[in-house]
Amino acid sequence: MMMGSGRRFAGGDLKNVILSLRTVVATVLQSKHAKFPAPLNCRSETKLDLGPRQRRLIAKSRTSASPLQGISARKLKSTANPDKGRAALFTRYRICPSQGAHQEMRCARQGAAMSKHRSISRSAVASSSGTPSGQRGDAVLAGVQSGVGEIGFVGLGRMGTAMAANLAASGQRVIAYVRRPDQIGRLEALGLTPTTDIGDLLDCKVVISMLPDDAAVRDIVFGSGDIGFRGLAAGLTPGAIHLSMSTISTAAASLLASEHERSGQGYVAAPVFGNPDAAKARQLFIVAAGVLADVDRCRPLLDCLGQKTFVIGTDPQHANLVKLLGNMMSATALEMMGEAVAVVRKRGLDPRSFVEIMTGTMFGGRAHKIYGDKIARQSYAAGFVLPLVLKDVRLALAEAENAGVPMPSVSVVRDRLITGIARGHGDLDWTALALIAGEESGLCPTPSVNSTEV
């Protein structure tokens, strides 16, 4: 295969050349006892046409005191053919993470006190599993834990707790950051390794965040005086990945991705569709975007957390745009169902029969079936509470405005949400849009807010 410079790679196709390069570097690193596993499915017999400078770097690494002083992706990239295509490939395959200032920061932290509530040993790997053998999570993570390493988790609300517990039940060691010490026991019972020191997450290869809004995620990435933390971007090692599963704005996603890239780290946006029940059952739908190599590294975790992952490209903000528009469409559907059910009630018909007819004919989607039944039963127990729905609807409207797209129906939903919160319904699920529609129609429903269903 010819590259832009006209030089021919020996060994056949380009993929085998790149894999062979990884094999050479992995061999050098392993000879110095480095903890970098050799890549799978490499063709060791393939010859690689290395230039003289690459050969000198490899020879130097064999006598270096540390393998990281010998050869790195950055050095290989700088000495490779200047063709942009090859440089991009060296960057994509991330042969070896450099360390530098981040290593110095980690060394400085060695003397810092660990969490008072939980002493975390970096060498110990917990294998407590509350999931019966043969379940999906065990199969997904079997044989890949050494590649994923310890997982950090920030954002232990109802969704985050269910997701982190699934990872732990699959045999993964999950270091869970919480602010309140009274949550320690509850998280330990789920198989997690809780800590009140967010710095304990900085040695993790992947840190997952499941936070409510832009501000909360920015505090974690850039640091916050409230928690005495410089931020993931300043503290994570190069090559580590921030897997952001929060529903945030596209502008925030782009900002966070740029900051992590500047620090030599990966950033993958992977917001989810589903409620806490779906999270517990590993039935979430995940929309992911980021550098494909980073997405691939996160794939075992995503497969453990959800039933399907949609990878929509390399720009993280696109995943958040899809998520915001999806939530906007769902909220609009709930509003329409609520208005229709209000008509049915005022005319003295059975709302359950009406919903059954609609979901069995023209409106058989998940949102109509799952939430239509709750609306018919007036079940508004908290799942996706109104303030968070309003936040997502506002973000979706902002995206539409920036694109020059009017959304009058969504503006109605926004106003309904504001009304519901003003009337004291802020702690109810977004199915309470039907409650608000009924109130606006003069109905006096008796909502079932004590139900355990969400």
Description of the structure:
By secondary structure, the protein is of the alpha/beta class. The protein has three domains: 14-96, no CATH class; 129-314, NAD(P)-binding Rossmann-like Domain (Rossmann fold), CATH 3.40.50.720; 321-440, N-(1-d-carboxylethyl)-l-norvaline Dehydrogenase, domain 2. It has 21 helices and nine strands. The protein has a six-stranded parallel sheet, with helices on both faces. A three-stranded mixed sheet has the order 7-8-9. The longest helix is centred in the C-terminal third of the chain and has 31 residues, at 316-346. It is globular. It starts with 13 loop residues before the first helix and ends in a 14-residue tail after the last helix.
Short description:
This protein is of the alpha/beta class. It has helices at residues 14-31, 52-61, 67-70, 73-79, 84-93, 101-109, 136-141, 145-148, 158-169, 184-189, 214-222, 232-235, 250-262, 276-280, 292-305, 316-346, 351-359, 366-376, 386-402, 408-422, 432-440; strands at 151-154, 174-177, 193-195, 206-209, 241-244, 266-269, 272-273, 284-288, 306-311.
